[in-house]
Amino acid sequence: MLTNIFPERNQAANEILCRNNPHEILVVPVDFAKKTHVVQIARGTGEYLRKRPLNVHNTDAGACFLLDKVEKVRQKYRIGKGNVIFGGEDPGEYAWNFILRVQSAGYQFVRVNAKEAKKHRTNTRATSDELALAGIAQTVLLRRSYSIESRDEIFGTMKRAERTRRKLIRAETAVKNRIHRDVDVLLPGFLSEAESGCPAFGEASLKLMEDRFSVVHIRRMRLETLTKRLRKTRQHKPEKVAATIKTLAENALPPSPDSVAYFQKSLAAKVRHLRSLRENIRLEENEMARSLVQTPGFLLTSIPGLGIVLTGGIVAEYGDPDTWPHPNKMASYAGIVARHYQSGGPDVEPVPGHLPIDANHHLKDQLLQAAYHTGHFKHPAWRQLKLPGEHPLYEHYQRVEMREGCSRLSTAKKLLTVARAMMRERTVYLPPNALNPAAPDAMPPKQYVEYLGIVRNMLNSKWKKYNLDGIPDDRNRMTQWMENVDGLTAYIRKQNK
């Protein structure tokens, strides 16, 4: 690996620019667009080899057209294929297939930060495609380009599913707020469980709101009919809930008769929209589970408080666990480490600042949620096996909370350290020194097998609602782990006999 002052930049591109004469290098800046990209061809000296930029369609024919043009220029100036660098600003989804087509032809494709490319334009007062190309080309030549992240089928799918789910959750909340406004007109207080006895947005309340829902309709409905409808939705204590709803309707102020029909239709449409959103959320979560179970990341669900959604979100943002960097870098990327400022010589201590704004906010939110949950959920094995204390993440959170410290940030950092160790060792969440024979609190083989059995039950409970059919056993990491546990259990029992 080439070591220079740009350790995080694309090292392959840096090596091309460092070891070759600028006259022997081609830079192809691409300004991405949904239908037609704008492309220019330049030498490493900065000289354009075309008077006007190329208009390249975002199609297979367009990619072939561009590759043909680059090949002709390369042969004319006798430049090797390995000395050609394509570059573009942070690509959108519409550009990925085009990038893959160029990469499949054997060319290096790098990305540049849009802010840096803008800073290196030849004209900062105007904006045009040609100026954008100049900024991209200069940024690449200044060795400030980054690698294009690989679009892995598993981790790429998991990341898209997680981010889509997040948007759907926001849309669901918005629809619920609109439903509240309609219900406040048709039957005030119905969506308050304390007043109606019916859980808000549960199956029972949705069924009632779908069918001519209003104060007048509930008043006219017989108590036996309302009870029967609630019983069909498996509502707990339907008789009591039906009586509570009838009492609420009798005491509520009725809406204007002229507006009831409109609000009923509007409410029914919103309820159908809510059901559709929930179905989409369920499908995205299931896709996250199917991707997660094919990676070592499923092991993180053995941590109390971490389910498929939080675990899948964290693993998707960091990517392949085999490439996870040091926990300090992982925490910095997530924006959970305060900035430090140091100047004035080596004797001056660094001064801690505030948390960075330019961080991965998706990941930061997931880590802080995960830290909160691990700090509030106890591990069942500690109680069943009578282990001393509680699991380390829980104890750490409570200890920091007692001294009124930053419990979520501190626990999130510790969680990253624990998670990375679990990924490297391919093991579930274990007590400290559990497998260290020299430690006084080491687990004997029989207790270790019992611990794995409890973890297995916990995993089955978390994963049982997801459909994993169709995933081959050789790709289902959880199935492989459970088979190994069965084999270890049989071996230890045999030894004890």
Fold and architecture overview:
With about 500 residues, this protein is of the alpha+beta class. It folds into three domains: about 10-150, YqgF/RNase H-like domain (Nucleotidyltransferase, domain 5), CATH 3.30.420.140; about 155-285; about 295-495, no CATH class. About 55% of the residues lie in helices and about 5% in strands. Strands 1, 2, 3, 4, 5, 6 and 7 form a seven-stranded mixed β-sheet that branches. It has a two-stranded antiparallel ribbon with strand order 8-9. A hairpin with a 4-residue loop joins strand 1 (about 25-30) and strand 2. Helix 10 packs across helix 11 (about 240-250). It is globular.
Give the gist of this structure:
With 497 residues, the protein is of the alpha+beta class. The chain has 20 helices and nine strands. Helix content is 55%, strand content 7%.
Mean pLDDT: 88
Distance between the termini: 54 Å
Tally of helical runs: 20
Low-confidence stretches: none
Largest sheet: 7 strands, mixed
* Residue share in helix: 40-55%
Gyration radius, to the nearest Å? 30 Å
Strand content: 5-15%
In total, how many domains does the architecture comprise? 3
- The structure class reads alpha+beta
